[in-house]
Amino acid sequence: MSTLLLQHIGTAVTCDGADRQLHGVDILCADGVIRAMGPNLAATAEEVIDCTGMLCYPGLINTHHHLYQCFSRNLPQVQNLELFDWLRALYEIWKNLNEESIRFSSLTAMGEMMKHGCTTCFDHHYVFPAGSGDLTGVQFAAAAELGMRMVCSRGSMDLSRKDGGLPPDSVVQTIDEILSDSVRVIETYHDPSPGSMRQVVLAPCSPFSVSADLLRESAKLARQYGVRLHTHLCETRDEERYTLEMVGMRPLAYMERLGWLGSDVWYAHGIHFNDAELRLLADTGTGIAHCPASNMKLASGVCRVPDLLELGVPLGLALDGSASNDGNSLLEELRTAYLLHRLTSSSRAPSGYDLLKMATTGGARLLGRTDIGSLEVGKRADLFLIDSRRLELVGATLDPKNVLATVGVRGAVDYTVINGSVTVRQGHLAALDEERLAAQANRACLAYLKL
Question: Which pTM was predicted?
Fold first, then answer.
C-alpha cells in the first residue's frame, strides 16, 4: 500500500457540501484515497511532507481543452481573428498532426496544468488526419507518464468545406469510420471504475462541422456504452446564424431534436442562450464548461454565469485550447473569470469561492465523477498546496476560500498530488526533467509547424 502523510496543513479548503475550512490538520492518503483528515493524526507513511503554512485545495478539474493547440499558440497570422476565420486559418496547420506532435503538445500542456494545481484534464480532441495513428492512445500514454487523471474524447468531424463545414477534407471522416473507431476507443481505453485515471467521452466537434446523423448516432452509441457526450455549443453568433440558415433552428433546439440534452451531456462555452434555453438546461441537468479567457480572446461574448448559477445549471471551469487561451493555467482562469464577471455583472457576479467550486465540485459533476472534486475521507487524493508565506501572498491569505480568484497565484504551486502520488514537488514536475522536455517539445513543435 502506497501512503502519503501531509502534516500540519495551515488551512485546508475542502469544497465539500458543508464548505468546511479546516485549520492545522493532517491528511493521510493511502492507495490513492484520502483515509483520514484531522489534527495530529497518529499515522506513519512512506512519504511525509511538512505542510506548515500551506494552503491546501482540491485538485482543479479542467472540463474542456484542446491539448494539441499548445503547438499553435501566439501565431501572428491568427491574432485578431474571430472563431470561424480563426478555425479556417488554423486547420491548415492542424491537418499536419501526428503522434509526435500529439505526444509532446500533450506533455507540455498537461505539465503546465499540473504545475498550476490541475489534477484532472478533459481533452476534446477531434482532429484525426488520415494515417496519423492512434492519437487517443498517445494522449493517455502522455497522461500516464505525468501522472495526470485524464478524460479523452473521441471527437469527430464529417463535414468538410465541400459540405458546407469549415475543416479541409483531410481531417474529416465518414460516419462509419467515426463510429467504428469510437467503439474501439471506448472498448480499449474507457475505465468506468471508481478512481479511474482513464475515461472516454464521445464528442463530435460542433454543429457547423458535423452532420445531424453523426450527432444522433454518437448520442445513441454513447448511451449504449454508458459514456458521456460533449460538444461546442452557442459559442458565437456565427454559429447561431449557421444553424438557423442550415436547419431553421437555434443551436440548442437543434441539439435537443438530436437527443443531446440530459445529465450525461455538457457543452463548451454556452454563451448565446436565451432565458427559455437556460431554463431547459436547468430542467434537464445539461451542463456548461465556462471558458472565459478563450471567449475574451476570440471576442465571442460573455457566458451568463450568474444566471446559470441561480438556475442550478451544472457548471464547470475550463481553459479551452491553448491557441485560444495561450496558456494552460486554471489558476489564471479562476482570476480571469472573477474579474470578467465583476466587470459585467457587478454585485451578481460569482464570488471567488463560487468559481473555485465550479473548478472542483462543478467539474466533477460535469464529468460524472463522485470520487473527486473535494477534500473528504473516501475521495481520491487529488489536491494541491501553496505556501501562504510566499512574497506574492503577503497580506492576502486572511480569506483562503477566495484568494485564488481575487488575488491569484503567480507561478507554480508548491505541490500537486494526484491519486495519492506527488506529481509536482516544490514547483517542478516530479516525473519528468522539465528542461529536457521543453527542448524536445520545442523541436517537435518546430517540425510540426514546418519552421
Answer: 0.97
Ramachandran sector of residue 37 (left: φ over 0; alpha: ψ -120 to 50; beta: rest):
beta
- Parse the chain into domains and list their residue ranges: 3-58+382-429, 60-366
Domain 60-366 fold: TIM Barrel (3.20.20)
Residues 6+ apart with CB under 8 A from 27: 5, 6, 9, 12, 34, 36, 37, 56, 375, 381, 383
Per-residue pLDDT of the chain (451 residues), as tens digits, is 699 999 999 999 999 999 999 999 999 999 999 999 999 999 999 999 999 999 999 999 999 999 999 999 999 888 889 989 999 999 999 999 999 999 999 999 999 999 999 999 999 999 999 999 999 999 999 999 999 999 999 999 999 888 888 888 888 999 999 999 999 999 999 999 999 999 999 999 999 999 999 999 999 999 999 999 999 999 999 999 999 999 999 999 999 999 999 999 999 999 999 999 999 999 999 999 999 999 999 999 999 999 999 999 999 999 998 889 999 999 999 999 999 999 999 999 999 999 999 999 999 999 999 999 999 999 999 999 999 999 999 999 999 999 999 999 989 999 999 999 999 999 999 999 999 999 999 999 999 998 7
Q: What angle do CA 424, 430, 436 make, to 5 degrees?
A: 120
The second-level CATH assignment, the architecture, of 3-58+382-429 is Roll (2.30)
